[in-house]
């Protein structure tokens, strides 16, 4: 399946890799798209900050950056996830680290599918979709 998991400058073993691949494929198909090639790359805060500065001219930490290589209805891209940011957020919000990793991954996929989170209504819509697809992963 054309979903790949990589580590950049962290050692983060992804659990239930095949289940997550099927889940992401199902999310994409549920949104009426076709899965192309997606790479999920786990990295540190510093690594993601350097990407944020270089490619987006943003000088702040973030949990995820998505590079979109989609063509027509085929979803392809790179999703960089800061394990450090996700861990800190899960501690701050008293939520499961694994659940937050999954939320950030599906958040990146939603961006690839054309969803944005700049305005309050867009943020709310994305959060609802994240919650919906997280329940599908757990069922």
List strands and helices in order, with pairings:
Elements: E1 3-7, H1 17-30, E2 34-43, H2 45-56, E3 64-68, E4 74-82, H3 83-92, H4 97-112, H5 120-138
Parallel strand pairs: 1-2, 2-4
Antiparallel strand pairs: 3-4
Helix pairs in contact: 3-4, 4-5
Structural overview:
This protein has 139 residues and is α/β, with parallel strands linked by helices. It has a single domain, classed as Metalloproteases ("zincins"), catalytic domain (Collagenase (Catalytic Domain), 3-Layer(aba) Sandwich). Helix content is 51%, strand content 21%. It has helices spanning 17-30, 45-56, 83-92, 97-112, 120-138; strands spanning 3-7, 34-43, 64-68, 74-82. Strands 1-2-4-3 form a four-stranded mixed β-sheet, sandwiched between helices. β3 and β4 form a beta hairpin. α4 crosses α5. The longest helix has 19 residues, at 120-138. The radius of gyration is 14 Å and the shape is globular. It starts with a strand and ends with a helix. The model has no long low-confidence stretch (mean pLDDT 94).
Structural features:
alpha/beta, single chain, globular, Collagenase (Catalytic Domain)
